[in-house]
Write a structure and sequence with these properties.
2 strands, 32% helix, mainly alpha
């Protein structure tokens, strides 16, 4: 069983070194700021606990769009090391045209799926993997 020690005790169970640990870290930081006399609203501090990161990331996208933070700290304990990164999110809607035809007359039609495959296959030539 995973376990994380905090100044107030221990957090135990699945996710204690991941999501639960991040929530506890945020709550302790908020408590310490308030105890030190800071006004969280004046500081512009917000704590967000997005969901669905393993399947689509809609939680983080919503936080980014609704709060539009200048900076954020993601409390992801992968590898139990601090990492510094910049990231972004780009959505694109692409419409690929085709021309319907009966399956027996493929020479008179144009399959939009084939055009989409060519488009997707060409994405590596944009060189986006050169950015870090």
């Amino acid at each position: 069983m995973r376990e994380m020690r905090t100044p107030l005790g221990r957090v135990r169970g699945l996710g204690s070194a991941d999501d639960k640990g991040g929530v506890v870290a945020c709550l302790l930081a908020a408590r310490d700021l308030v105890t030190a006399g800071e006004d969280l609203e004046r500081l512009g501090v917000a704590f967000a606990f997005p969901v669905d990161e393993e399947r689509g990331g809609s939680g983080s996208r919503t936080v980014a769009l609704e709060l539009a933070p200048v900076r954020a700290i993601a409390l992801e304990a992968t590898g139990l090391r601090t990492g510094v990164a910049e990231t972004g999110d780009i959505d694109a809607w692409v419409h690929v045209a085709g021309r319907s035809a009966h399956g027996a007359l493929t020479d008179v039609g144009e399959n939009a799926i084939h055009a989409a495959v060519r488009l997707i296959s060409a994405l590596p030539s944009l060189g986006l993997d050169r950015h870090s």
